[in-house]
Amino acid sequence: MARAGVSTAPLSRLHSLPPRPSLLHNPQPNVLLLRPQQRKAPATTAAALPTAADLPELSLPAAAAAAAALAAAVSLSDPERRRRAQAEAAGGGDKEAVRAYFNSTGFERWRKIYGSATEGVNRVQLDIREGHAQTVAAALSMLRDSPLELAGTTVCDAGCGTGSLAIPLAAEGADVLASDISAAMVSEAQRQASLAQATAPGSTTFRMPRFEVRDLESLEGRYDVVVCLDVLIHYPREEAKAMIRHLASLADKRLLISFAPRTLYFDFLKRVGELFPGPSKATRAYLHAEADIEDALRQAGWRVANRGFISTQFYFAKLFEAVPVASSSS
Hints:
By secondary structure, the chain is an alpha/beta fold. It has a domain of about 220 residues: Vaccinia Virus protein VP39 (Rossmann fold), CATH 3.40.50. About 40% of the residues lie in helices and about 15% in strands. It contains ten helices and nine strands. The chain has a nine-stranded mixed beta sheet with strand order 1-2-8-9-7-6-3-4-5. Helix 2 packs across helix 3 and helix 8 crosses helix 10. The longest helix has 23 residues. The chain is globular, with a radius of gyration of 20 Å. The two termini are about 40 Å apart. The N terminus is likely disordered. It holds the Pfam family Mg-por_mtran_C.
């Protein structure tokens, strides 16, 4: 099935990332890193919707009936009721549900997605793996293009998962604290970091990250850079905004955050997906409006200096690089 692309109006500066070999037979994912000056609203085209060639031939009345049935099903779906039940089963709210999920079935699922093996990994998981890898690459590109020298820079990787960002930062000499709400994820990240260190004997730049099992709200200290990738999707609007304000209080020079953007199109896709819950799916997926993320940053005294958009067939994310309002760096 052909995938529509995502186009963005040109801005004052465009960062291009080195090409990565695609894991699928689909076109290369779209990764745009953009300077905010003279920013125009991006013109996006629908991605991952079937074309006419992908659908069986239907008469006009049958097609209209099918569309009406889908619309009714979407309007009657109640993902919030499922979320409440999942949270109650975990003994609390969203945070407890996320912790329980990533310490059990979610850990195995996402360990496969974040890994490198292809056996037992389905097409959707491979696509999400590629999307996450592109987000990590985009974050690294932003930091390398900043005035910061990564060697010796203190970094807090909040929600480190299996170490996909913490380990390459450590390889460049950054002093990294990597934390995750899931003890299983932290253990896997430690294992991956040890393997990375063993494959780089004699390296004078690799600094083993410090790993901790922590939720975002309990993080403390001061860091040159705080990074939080693919975490806010697990938390609703007000919780996510509070987390951003807390993360901003820990950072001195840079704050990088990724999130699934809330648009009419992406919200529709999400609601359709929630009609088919299954044991392999995440417990929840919250989309966030860009205005909400920028508002939380502004309240904390930060502004967006760079922004990027990553899109594959089943993965889409906005990436913001923020700096203190008082900073003259861009």
